[in-house]
Amino acid sequence: MSKSGQLRLSDVRAVFRLVGDCRDLGPDRTQWNQLLAEGASRLFNCFMTNSFVARYHPVKRIEDSVILWDHWADTSARQWFFRYIHNTGVVFLPSVIRFVEPPDRIRVARRDDLFTSTQWRGSQERNDPRRTCHQDEFIYTAIPLPSRPGHFFGMSLNRGINQPAFRPRERNQVQLLHEEIAALFDTRLHLSDDPIWQGLTPRLRDVLMALRSGDSEKQIALRLGLSRHTVHEYVGALYRRFGVSSRPELMKVCQLTIVPATPSKPTST
After folding, report:
1. pLDDT of residue 249
2. At residue 137, what are phi and psi to the nearest 5 degrees?
3. Same-domain pairing of 96 and 173
């Protein structure tokens, strides 16, 4: 990570505070969607934010999309945008189509990762519909959903006209937020359907999910705002709960696979 993109401790804490607030709401998707939408808009000073789940298509790029939440600073701009979609049949803007790739790794892009300033200023998308509904600079993120092969969880953060472009550090902060929220979306919201989670307290579930992501006890402590000693005690409680004495045994019993917290990038050939 370049020095200009290095996250500060305050950046990490702000993300984990928002994720923790969502986690505390439990499996109530409606409540945490609303909290996340409003929190992300405040954290990144956005005019509009939204998220969606979709399936990748090799030709159309996106299909079977479902919007999870959206938050606008101006409701009239939101109404105009949805009228635009209805009248034109355009569901995803050209910039989103350009951004989407096969969902085999996390992908994050700012506007200037997809367009030069000259290309963007002259693009039809920027002049209509974006400027008409008071939007300009953006960041898009997409994360594969292991529980739904071929699908990805996307987020779109958009700033208003005359607001500054997203900086590299903000890009990395958005990625951290999306990684943490994706873990909630792909696991916590489906825990009630899996008997392995029954009988676990919310905090034990949090620790077990973090172990699944490959986090060390030190990383779990930072993520959950706990001391390392407390996390170690929770890990011991999980060992006793499942009758194991090591982390690999725990993963095997729970039929979980330890995966990297950040998917690796494809190697060049």
Report:
1. 85
2. -65, 150
3. yes
pLDDT under 50: residue ranges of the chain: 189-193, 256-269
pLDDT in tens, 145-196: 877 788 898 999 999 999 999 999 999 999 999 888 887 776 554 444 455 6
Contact of 179 with 81, CB cutoff 8 Å: no
Q: In what order do the strands lie in the sheet with 151-158?
A: 61-72, 48-57, 151-158, 138-144, 107-110
E strands along the chain, which residues?
Answer: 48-57, 61-72, 107-110, 138-144, 151-158
- The confidence score (pLDDT) of residue 47 equals 96
Q: Which residue range(s) make up the domain with 36? A: 3-189
- Kindly report the CATH number assigned to the domain that includes residue 224: 1.10.10.10
- The answer on 127 and 82 residing in a single domain is yes
Same domain, 55 and 14: yes
